[in-house]
Structure formats: structure tokens, C-alpha cells
Amino acid sequence: MRKAIPRKKRPSPVDAPLDVRALLERVARVGRGTGAGQAGAFLLGDGVLVSAGDEVIADDQRSRAWLSSIARSAQGVRYTAEQSAAEPTFPGPQPASFVAVPSAGGEAVVYAAGKAGGFTDADQELLASLVRLIAAALAQRPAERQASSPELVSMISHELRNPLASIRGFGVLLRDREDSLSEEERHEFVEAIVRQTDNLSNLIGDVLDVSQMVAGRFRYAATPYDPSALLAESIRDVAAAYPSHRFHLDAPHLPAVRGDSDRMKQVLLNLLSNACRFSAEASDVRVDAHVSGDRMVVDVADSGVGIEAADMPRLFGRFERLHRVSLPRVKGTGLGLYITKQIVEAHGGTISATSEPGVGTTFTFAVPLLAPFA
Description:
Beta-Lactamase, five-stranded mixed β-sheet, Helix Hairpins, 3 domains, single chain, alpha+beta, five-stranded antiparallel β-sheet, 41% helix, 374 residues, 8 helices, Heat Shock Protein 90
């Protein structure tokens, strides 16, 4: 008698993993079918923005604030050019009409904009049905949500464990071998403890910054500052941690800038530290700054390993660490560039990168001389 071979069970649609991006793209295409010039779906919890039209709402602080206000509203909003100027402003060139509808839980928003003659009640009800579909689909992935949280906790716990282990190890040596250690050894151990404490503090600071950004509670204070002095100060701070690197600053005739100098220094420290970590010792790091129109433009360039083209779209994502064959295993949570991008965009600026593997990477950011929150 032939023994029956059990057939492998195929996953049901409910068991199958949810492709959130594909779902939002389909919803956006249906929204475009209302006759809109553009349409899209935004998942606030995951920070995913998908547009099916020729225009795309940028994933920046202004758009997040607008979408968050829609998410908090009970019925969403509908706008035509004939309405009062007090109506919510679209995060981009103001269209002649738009409609935006949130899900009941506020986790998603569907919008459509630019329909000649304006949107109807039927259009708004269609978008309401689409956003309910997104919410229902998200509710079917509890296992996926639960799996992501332990993974994140595990990663952060791992990053915390390394500096804590070093601090404890050097502390134990100082306690147990105090009488036998030379002055030079004691100094070396204390310096190591200070260095690891700084690493731990920076890690905790990054996690707290991201949590505040996601919650919309990250605050900025605008004051006039000297950008040339800020650039020089940032380079001095990073050079102390990477003394073998050669830093070159070219920033002639920069006028005063009004913005949050502490946050902008955070941007510079992140970019300069990255340039050092991803390049060989004793290599060059170049910083060039100039004014173009009403903006200050800053380039931070290294001659390091570079970034693979496939990794470039993920560069500014949260918790993205680009571990490829051509990249060294640099430790970190992958939060630095995400924070950098959020700060630059909050100042009304832009940031981008160009890279060639084996040659180096250049990060370029441009911010207005007068920040929009000034």
C-alpha cells in the first residue's frame, strides 16, 4: 500500500502577509478614478505615503501635520476654491478642490485632489469606503504587528548592551585592580568609560528624538546664529572623536541664519560622524557651504566605501542599517539619517545624497536663511 504524502497546506488569504504598500497603491488608483488629478493613501502609523497621480505629497513635517489634523477630524474635509480661506491648506500647491477622509481609528487617510467642478458626496463616500477597507486589512495582521515590536526591542536592547558591558567591565577593573594599575592604565580606562557613556547617551537621545517626531512633539526654537561658526564648532567636536581624519572647511561669506542652531548642529554632527565611520582612517572629509538665493547649501563629502544604488532609497528610513558586503559593520540603530532628514525638512529645507561605491558619498542639504517657524 502506498503511503499518502501529506500535501503542504497553502496559506489562506487571511494568513498571508499583508503587503501594505500594494494595498495603498490600489486604493490610490481607485481614488484617482473619481476624476481627480491626484489621489493617494497615507498610513500614519507606518509613515507610508503612496500617490497614484502625477503629484506626490512629500513625506515631510508639513504633510504629516496636515494629515494628522485630518486623522483627528471625525468626517474628514472637502474643499473647493469658492470656500473660505480659513479652510485647511493643502500640503503643496493648493488645488482647486480636494477631499480627504480618515479611518475611524485615525491610522489612515485617503485623499483625492484637483477634480474639475469639485468632489461630490458620492466621491467622499467612496473614499470613506476605501479607508475603511484599509483599516479592516490592518486589523487582520495582529501577528505581523506583534512580531515587529519584539524585533525592535531586541535591536535596541542589543545596542544598549554593548556600551553597558564596556562601562561595567572597565569599572570592575578600576575597582578590583586599583592598586596595581598604572596612572596611564587608569586614565585609559576612565576615557573608555566616558566614551561608552557618551555612546549610550547618544543612543537614548536618538530613540527619544524619534519617538517625539513620530508623536509630533519635537520642538524647534528659532534664533539668529553664525553658520560659519557652527560649521567650525561641529567639525572640532567630531575631529576630537576621529583625530586621524583630515577635515577641510570651505564656507566663505555666509550671512547670519535664523533657525534652531542646536538642531542644525545635530544635523552636522550626524553627517560628519557618518562620513568618518564609513571611511578609512586618515582620509579626507570635506565640508563646503555657500548661499544660493535665500538658502544656505551645505555639502558633506567623504572618500569612503560609498553606498550601493539599491540601498539609496532606504537611506533616510527609520532603523535602516545598510549591511552590505561593501560596507563595514558599523554599529548603530539606523536613526541618525532619519532624524537628520526630519530636522532639515522642519526648517523648510531638503536633503539628498549622491554616492559611488568605493569612491565616497556626498550629502547635500539646503535650508532657508529664515526658518518657516521663525
